[in-house]
């Protein structure tokens, strides 16, 4: 994984030193900087040095600002975490009731409406949705700010106001995907024999739905929610840029623009790590949900 | 015969399908007395399972239309309020389904699935329900019920799971037990144990039993009466002896002829009934068996539906009846 990230980044054209120095600089300064950042060494050696440090948690220093990459990431992490969790909340608030209602009344009006809404959510590009939200709620109606970020500790209301639009923009997309899964996994559970057994026992409907339908529909749901969370956590690049949200997506974007290799490598490595960790968590959660998977 | 536990009268079930309305059950009538076992036999697709699912309102309401009457201890199951029907499921009718591999919830313990049914019908405390669950598992012959109660279905064998399903069906001491192909998925030794178990419970508790199967060996072993279904209709019914020893309907004769007989011919071909049952979306106007019938001895067969009429000696409490024009012809 890290090899792939490293090679891909170095394939990008453009000289980071030249970009960092601007237009007027002497050859000596250029060479000195190049040597200091290790860019004059062969690529394999560069990789080994970087990887060696990375495993100890040292991701190097930004070409651009001179700050350590870890500090840059740590600085951006709260904003991304906030947005990811808020988006997931929006997604689940949309997906759970909508998916359940459609599964309980297949081919009804609610179901058809939910299909249209989720199809729209899946197809619409998130940047377009972001811009539309800004135009309507920040522009025409003027209810909410168009972007930016303030920490919760400084200004709770401002924090919330600035969070709403980006969270909705990303949440609608994730929510649409999850809605589909809720519907299909609930329908599958509803049609299973053991639900009929439960009904034949004379268990009240509400209990049948919670313990025999929802409980069994949970497994695929956890999987897709995990994937969505990983996607949200690895920085929703476009949405962060549209809303000037100072998260990891924006950091990665700036790093690409500036050819700031260490920062970009660090960010991408972190995204990969997020996917791995979330997948692991989902797997661990499985064994809590389904006794057939549990270790003996 | 004692007062009937279940009286089904002119039960009809239509299912809406993409290929038109399927007439799955067409005017089925039968009674089950207390402590009596009625076997319902027939091929796959003859409407056996649907007819009992309809009794408990377990068919999808969107596509199924159920008419007729089904009196359980005098109360009509088909017109009950959903809440009353829920109360009846369990204490009124216990049901055992065909496949023990899928009819238990894989993510809940056996105990949980048993106590759930008990608590839905008035066993108030968790502890009491659990104690009763252990007792029930012991009754159906599960070894070490105290530990089995905390196991998940996947930790038990097929036979053990079916015992659990039976324990669930019996947990609220129902007046009627419906077993839908309950032993079909099990191997023969386990099947025999389950049959013994049901037989014991029937004699001890006086439960009426409806046993749906296509296994005539099982029928001979446990049933008092037999009802042969074809194309959603009852084509012949009577005591086990009447139907198995002196079958009248060509279909019943065909079914019995299709049984391999170990005692006689070793090389003889197994008799089969040529063709397949008619699609329930397109039933023939006359006798439902006419298209496959080897006899076709009457002009009315093709056009006129034969009524279910008494054959042989009349005037008995349990008459032998068959819906065929052939019987009349043979008698005359």
Automatic annotation (TrEMBL), chain A:
<feature type="transmembrane region" description="Helical">
    <location>
        <begin position="263"/>
        <end position="286"/>
    </location>
</feature>
<keyword id="KW-1003">Cell membrane</keyword>
<feature type="transmembrane region" description="Helical">
    <location>
        <begin position="116"/>
        <end position="143"/>
    </location>
</feature>
<keyword id="KW-0812">Transmembrane</keyword>
<keyword id="KW-0472">Membrane</keyword>
<dbReference type="InterPro" id="IPR035906">
    <property type="entry name" value="MetI-like_sf"/>
</dbReference>
<comment type="similarity">
    <text>Belongs to the binding-protein-dependent transport system permease family.</text>
</comment>
<keyword id="KW-0813">Transport</keyword>
<feature type="transmembrane region" description="Helical">
    <location>
        <begin position="217"/>
        <end position="243"/>
    </location>
</feature>
<protein>
    <submittedName>
        <fullName>Peptide/nickel transport system permease protein</fullName>
    </submittedName>
</protein>
<dbReference type="GO" id="GO:0055085">
    <property type="term" value="P:transmembrane transport"/>
</dbReference>
<dbReference type="Pfam" id="PF19300">
    <property type="entry name" value="BPD_transp_1_N"/>
</dbReference>
<keyword id="KW-1133">Transmembrane helix</keyword>
<dbReference type="GO" id="GO:0005886">
    <property type="term" value="C:plasma membrane"/>
</dbReference>
<dbReference type="Pfam" id="PF00528">
    <property type="entry name" value="BPD_transp_1"/>
</dbReference>
<dbReference type="InterPro" id="IPR045621">
    <property type="entry name" value="BPD_transp_1_N"/>
</dbReference>
<feature type="transmembrane region" description="Helical">
    <location>
        <begin position="163"/>
        <end position="182"/>
    </location>
</feature>
<feature type="domain" description="ABC transmembrane type-1">
    <location>
        <begin position="77"/>
        <end position="286"/>
    </location>
</feature>
<feature type="transmembrane region" description="Helical">
    <location>
        <begin position="81"/>
        <end position="104"/>
    </location>
</feature>
<dbReference type="InterPro" id="IPR000515">
    <property type="entry name" value="MetI-like"/>
</dbReference>
UniProtKB/TrEMBL annotation, chain B:
<dbReference type="InterPro" id="IPR027417">
    <property type="entry name" value="P-loop_NTPase"/>
</dbReference>
<dbReference type="GO" id="GO:0005886">
    <property type="term" value="C:plasma membrane"/>
</dbReference>
<dbReference type="GO" id="GO:0005524">
    <property type="term" value="F:ATP binding"/>
</dbReference>
<comment type="similarity">
    <text>Belongs to the ABC transporter superfamily.</text>
</comment>
<dbReference type="Pfam" id="PF08352">
    <property type="entry name" value="oligo_HPY"/>
</dbReference>
<dbReference type="InterPro" id="IPR003593">
    <property type="entry name" value="AAA+_ATPase"/>
</dbReference>
<keyword id="KW-0472">Membrane</keyword>
<keyword id="KW-0067">ATP-binding</keyword>
<dbReference type="GO" id="GO:0015833">
    <property type="term" value="P:peptide transport"/>
</dbReference>
<dbReference type="InterPro" id="IPR003439">
    <property type="entry name" value="ABC_transporter-like_ATP-bd"/>
</dbReference>
<feature type="domain" description="ABC transporter">
    <location>
        <begin position="6"/>
        <end position="256"/>
    </location>
</feature>
<dbReference type="InterPro" id="IPR013563">
    <property type="entry name" value="Oligopep_ABC_C"/>
</dbReference>
<dbReference type="GO" id="GO:0016887">
    <property type="term" value="F:ATP hydrolysis activity"/>
</dbReference>
<protein>
    <submittedName>
        <fullName>Peptide/nickel transport system ATP-binding protein</fullName>
    </submittedName>
</protein>
<keyword id="KW-0813">Transport</keyword>
<dbReference type="Pfam" id="PF00005">
    <property type="entry name" value="ABC_tran"/>
</dbReference>
<keyword id="KW-1003">Cell membrane</keyword>
<keyword id="KW-0547">Nucleotide-binding</keyword>
<dbReference type="InterPro" id="IPR017871">
    <property type="entry name" value="ABC_transporter-like_CS"/>
</dbReference>
<dbReference type="InterPro" id="IPR050388">
    <property type="entry name" value="ABC_Ni/Peptide_Import"/>
</dbReference>
């Amino acid at each position: 994984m890290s090899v792939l990230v490293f090679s891909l980044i170095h394939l990008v054209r453009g000289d980071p030193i030249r970009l960092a120095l601007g237009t007027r600089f002497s050859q000596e300064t250029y060479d000195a900087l190049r040597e200091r950042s290790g860019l004059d060494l062969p690529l394999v050696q560069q990789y080994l040095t970087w990887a060696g440090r990375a495993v100890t948690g040292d991701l190097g220093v930004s070409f651009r600002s001179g700050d350590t990459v870890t500090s840059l990431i740590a600085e951006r992490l709260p904003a991304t975490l906030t947005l990811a969790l808020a988006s997931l909340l929006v997604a689940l608030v949309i997906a759970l009731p909508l998916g359940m209602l459609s599964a309980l009344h297949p081919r009804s009006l609610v179901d058809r409406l939910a299909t249209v809404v989720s199809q729209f959510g899946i197809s619409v590009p998130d940047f377009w949705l972001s811009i539309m939200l800004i135009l309507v709620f920040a522009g025409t109606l003027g209810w909410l700010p168009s972007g930016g970020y303030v920490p919760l500790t400084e200004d709770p209301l401002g924090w919330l106001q600035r969070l709403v639009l980006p969270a909705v923009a990303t949440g609608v997309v994730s929510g649409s995907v999850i809605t589909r899964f809720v519907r299909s996994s609930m329908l599958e559970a509803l049609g299973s024999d053991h639900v009929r057994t439960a009904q034949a026992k004379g268990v009240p409907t509400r209990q049948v739905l919670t313990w025999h339908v929802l409980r069994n529909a949970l497994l695929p749901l956890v999987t897709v929610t995990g994937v969505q969370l990983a996607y949200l956590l690895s920085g929703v690049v476009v949405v962060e840029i549209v809303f000037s949200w100072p998260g990891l997506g924006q950091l990665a974007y700036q790093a690409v623009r500036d050819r700031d290799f260490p920062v970009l490598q660090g960010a991408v490595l972190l995204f990969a790590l997020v996917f791995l960790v979330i997948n692991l968590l989902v797997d661990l959660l499985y064994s809590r949900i389904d006794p057939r998977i549990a270790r003996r | 015969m004692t007062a009937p536990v279940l009286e089904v009268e002119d039960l009809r079930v239509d299912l809406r399908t993409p290929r038109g309305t399927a007439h799955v059950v067409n005017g089925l009538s039968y009674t089950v007395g207390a402590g009596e076992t009625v076997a319902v036999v027939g091929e796959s697709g003859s409407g056996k399972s649907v007819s009992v699912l309809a009794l408990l309102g377990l068919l999808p309401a969107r596509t199924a239309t159920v008419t007729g009457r089904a009196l359980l201890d005098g109360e009509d199951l088909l017109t009950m309020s959903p809440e009353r029907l829920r109360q009846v499921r369990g204490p009124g009718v216990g049901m055992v389904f065909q496949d023990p591999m899928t009819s238990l919830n894989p993510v809940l313990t056996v105990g949980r699935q048993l106590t759930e049914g008990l608590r839905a019908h008035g066993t108030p405390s968790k502890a009491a329900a659990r104690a009763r669950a252990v007792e029930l598992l012991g009754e159906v012959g599960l070894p070490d019920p105290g530990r089995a109660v905390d196991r998940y279905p996947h930790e038990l064998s097929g036979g053990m799971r079916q015992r659990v399903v039976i324990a669930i069906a019996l947990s609220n001491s129902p007046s009627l037990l419906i077993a839908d192909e309950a032993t079909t998925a099990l191997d023969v030794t386990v099947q025999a144990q389950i049959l013994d178990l049901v037989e014991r419970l029937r004699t001890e508790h006086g439960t009426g039993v409806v046993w749906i199967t296509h296994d005539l060996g099982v029928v001979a072993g446990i049933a008092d009466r037999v009802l042969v279904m074809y194309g959603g209709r009852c084509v012949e019914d009577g005591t086990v002896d009447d139907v198995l020893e002196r079958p009248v309907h060509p279909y019943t004769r065909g079914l019995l002829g299709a049984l391999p007989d170990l005692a006689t011919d070793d090389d003889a071909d197994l008799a089969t009934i040529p063709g397949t049952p008619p699609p329930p979306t397109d039933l023939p106007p006359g006798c439902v068996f006419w298209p496959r019938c080897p006899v076709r001895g009457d002009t009315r067969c093709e056009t006129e539906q034969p009524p279910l009429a008494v054959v042989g000696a009349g005037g008995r409490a349990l008459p032998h009846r068959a819906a065929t024009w052939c019987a009349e012809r043979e008698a005359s």
